[in-house]
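We store chain and fold; example below:
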Amino acid sequence: MVNIQMKIDFKNKRVLVTGGTRGIGRQIAEDMLDLGATLTVTGKSSHCIFPGAEYMQVDFLDDESTNKFIEVISNQTYDICINNAGINKIDSFCDVKKEDWDRILKVNLTAPFLTQQAVVDNMVKQGYGKIINIASIWGSISIAKRAAYSSSKFGLRGLTLASAAELSRFNVLVNTVSPGFTLTDLTRQVLGPDRMQEISRSIPMGRMAEPSEISKVVLFMASELNSYISGQNIIVDGGFVSV
């Protein structure tokens, strides 16, 4: 008989979560703390909302702020890095302004690249690391008015694949988790109740995800239970992209 213990905990693990002050990122950060992680979380706010966590104020649209952040984390050792910070702006393809294109790629793709690059040296040295890049279903499929956002998330998947190919041999596992429609404050604000109901009917499970349902997948991918998954894109969408 095989004895499999499915307990997840992050005691003695140092975890970095970017964009952890709201939505899915906040849920991941809260769950990490509950499971014993030594947590560093970033956000644009000037104050920490997580008692017991290290907080770093970072604006990935500001080069000086980003450079200071990268310098600090380059001198730290993290066991787990979760790149969650992201922005979006919905526009018809022909109406996308270059400044919006640049902003979206700067936060959604360049910042994870720089963050990942900053933490991997020490992960390689210690022979252990988990990197999880939070993408989106719009990095696997796309629709109208998502040109910039989809480009950034498809790019994030490419970054994951390429870095996993290089880092996996050092026991540094790099994966992407791609949420579908999720019940966050931002989703409610952008879509409104009528559009949310319409979208929910198009999802095979008939509803949007709770942030905790996305977080659970991230927790598994970051935990000791994942010892052999690398370079993969885990879609958590209630079956949406399959129909």
